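Quick one:
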Amino acid sequence: MASSMKALKQKIRAEYKAKRRGIPADRKRQNDRKIRERVEALPSYKRAACLLCYVSLPDEVDSFALIENALSQGKMVCVPVSLEETHTVDFYQIRSLEELEPGTYGVLEPVPGKAKKITNFPRPAVCIVPGLVFDREGFRLGYGKGYYDRFLQRFRGVKIGVCYRELIAELLPHGYYDRPVDWLVSESGAKKISRDERMKRRGGQKKAETEKRKRAEGRPAGHDSNRKR
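Output:
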């Protein structure tokens, strides 16, 4: 079962890598600008005191202008350092793109020891989440290493996924520990993704309505007063 899931994910990655390579350079630049503008227009981004953001590779949604604009607005900006031994990321504060040097997998990173590691992020905070492909429920496939998956399990701020329209799938395979983003932004628009909507898309409209009613009544979601211990 695990091997078949791994093969399926590899097939999906190959398909969407080909789609991404097929985007013409001039259209990519236009899409990058539109995505940045849509992110910056989000109320959660405008309110954010702290921006956590990946540093893009040439074929990813460009993040350099977003980082520069956030710095000029006085936001704290933190970018990741990938830890190969644990397949996790730590975030370090930067005050300029000039502080970055090639690191893991050739990605520009701050230099630990020179930059300050941040573990308690000022609130409100938003995280711009990279991904090769996202689905309409906000789940993502990265490059198979799981660096961001582990971080997102403990991040309590607003998660914003960014990708090109061609790289949005209807539904992706995901596991119990995967965390969906709260917003999905492409050049075509920004969409807020709620838990109730995810349940409805999976055919659980009645269950979603029940869970929503329980929350309104102050009961924990998933609680059933008639269920035995």
